[in-house]
Predict the 3D structure of the following.
Amino acid sequence: MQKGKASLCLEHPAYIIGMASVAGKKEGEGPIGSGIDVVEQDPMFGADNWEQAESAMQKQAADLALEKGDIHRRDIRYLFAGDLLGQLIATSFGTVDLEIPLFGLYGACSTIGEALSLGAMCIDGNQADKVMAMASSHYATAEKQFRFPLGYGNQRPKCTTWTVTGCGALVLSGQGSEDQVKITGITTGRMVDMGAKDSMNMGAAMAPAAWDTIMQNFKDFGVDENWYDQIITGDLGEVGQKILLDFMKNEGHDLTGKHTDCGLHIYDNQKQDTHSGGSGCGCAAVTLCAWILPEMLKGTWKRVLFVPTGALLSTVSYNEGQSIPGIAHGVILERKKRS
């Protein structure tokens, strides 16, 4: 099942049998807002602070994914989940009531790709019958931790992305039908550091990692962009997408019309003033559940390479003047028999 240097072709695909998305008011007003299951008007989600709000959002998304898939939580063997906060406090407090064995993950904004990859590997290796993959972010918690308190009112440069307030949860199973979307392969990303140091320009930090993972996927599976109906990265935004397309073109791959980015779809950059687009763990997770998978179920695409991206900085590393490494995980989504 090993393919090349960093990929796996799953002998037993992982079927997506349940999914749910919960997001905030701004996300609900965006282009894919109608596809989001729950749009919460209260950014506090009824909680006492921002961090508890993100935890509440995770619990709501997990419960809804189970409900929509008609699945009981006791049937979930493992939960793979994460967020952007130190020590994963949104996840640890948000999932305690689920009583599901937890693998807490940190891949920054690529976390949903990491969660889906590990979950699919468990399904393929018969280590679990059903697992859940989940990731979340909250605009206020991320700004508070990585940038400035909201009350500071700092100006944001045009290259910045807007952290999504949202959570996406998906249930994977070894049993499913050809009408359902399944994960048939993965390409695990490696750390890529090209020296970017601007914490306000995440697209520039993550684009090289997206390029590296996509190229590795092509090499490992012996394919090119024409094998996919669409290649969708996580949250590069306008700046990162331009860098990625330039990198790919230099390698002889023209992704024009073949590539899009979750950060460019969750918001209307012109009307909502998000500058470069969306970001955060919730960006790719919500866009996957609210737009990508529904489009595949409608038949718009049959094979998608989903590549969530992450910038692995911390407040400590940034303040010490270190550069910002990036990572991206590739997940092959299909809704047809393997050719």
About this structure: The domain at 182-334 is CATH 3.40.47.40 (Peroxisomal Thiolase; Chain A, domain 1). The radius of gyration is 18 Å.
